[in-house]
Design a protein that fits this description.
The chain is mainly α. It has 2 helices and no strands. Helix content is 82%, strand content 0%. It starts with a helix and ends with a helix.
């Protein structure tokens, strides 16, 4: 190989090195941009999950209040049924009583019932 051929070869290799450095820099920039976009999406999805959890918490709080109302009304209805029976009426069947005193037990029971009915 003569000197000109070696010089051209060295220039080609140098140009390839410059091109490769440019490609690497572009790749790193694009990777950083994609990472930033994914972080934004991650934070948005995290907020959605937090909202879902807050919704669950609100409904459980509402459910707890409804369970307490049910127990109160059931006790009142049961007492009324006893009075009616003492006054000579035929026994009147009461609605289903709650199988647990705590809301956790009531929720678990209702979930089982709804599953058995194919509603969930």
């Amino acid at each position: 190989m003569n000197g000109d051929a070696v010089e051209r070869l060295m220039n080609v290799i140098l140009q390839m090195q410059i091109n490769l450095a440019h490609i690497t820099e572009t790749f790193q920039q694009q990777t950083a941009e994609v990472r930033q976009q994914l972080e934004v999406i991650f934070e948005e999805e995290k907020k959605v999950l937090d909202g879902c959890l807050n919704g669950i918490d609100e409904r459980l709080t509402e459910c707890s209040a409804v369970v307490e109302d049910y127990k109160k009304h059931y006790a009142e209805l049961s007492a009324m049924s006893d009075r009616l029976r003492r006054l000579g009426t035929e026994p009147i069947s009461l609605p289903v009583g709650l199988p647990a005193d705590r809301v956790e037990g009531v929720v678990a029971w209702r979930l089982r019932e709804l599953r058995a009915q194919g509603k969930i």
